[in-house]
């Protein structure tokens, strides 16, 4: 569910996966993760940045879930001038050959 939400999120999303290594790590087993993790409940405010930082440094039990969402921040693409007039990805736009030739000939 978390991976699905990260993919659907517009912008940057970081997913940290906890997974035991059954071959080499005999300490952090499935049982260890069951005892040392918990899921954030529905009352947790994902828009509270300070609380997200606090959750990220907890050590006794590791929280699982979505820590923080900033809905007011623009995505990387939204901050680029290239996308101000046209939201289409660059690979879907028509190439204007005269502009490319002009760029190539700038240093000549």
Automatic annotation (TrEMBL):
Residues 21-84 form the Pyruvate ferredoxin oxidoreductase beta subunit C-terminal domain. Transmembrane segments: none annotated. SUPFAM superfamilies: Thiamin diphosphate-binding fold (THDP-binding) (SSF52518). InterPro entries: 2-oxoacid:Fd_oxidoreductase, PFO_beta_C, THDP-binding. This is Pyruvate ferredoxin oxidoreductase beta subunit C-terminal domain-containing protein. It comes from marine sediment metagenome.
